[in-house]
Amino acid sequence: MEPVRALWEIAFQLERAGAPTYRVRAFRRAAQVVSDLPAGELGRRVGGGTLQALPGIGATTAKVITGAAGGQQPGYLAALLAEAAPPVHTDTRGAAR
Question: What is the CA radius of gyration of the chain?
């Protein structure tokens, strides 16, 4: 999974769950910081363990970025998705089923 996509998805899931705004903003900020990095910089930072030296990247967001950069679905995201209520489906008359 792409790290920026993972961070945005976590922010979305947190917002959807009604998490405190500061948590949502932290993941959005981290996504912006990562997307603004020059080509190749993310890989160097992940490899060197220096993600937290970037402004807006803390221990949790660094762990998410590292997992996603390694091709895995971050555990943080997996937990949020597991906790999320399934969507309510409606039929063509608007009745829930």
Answer: 16
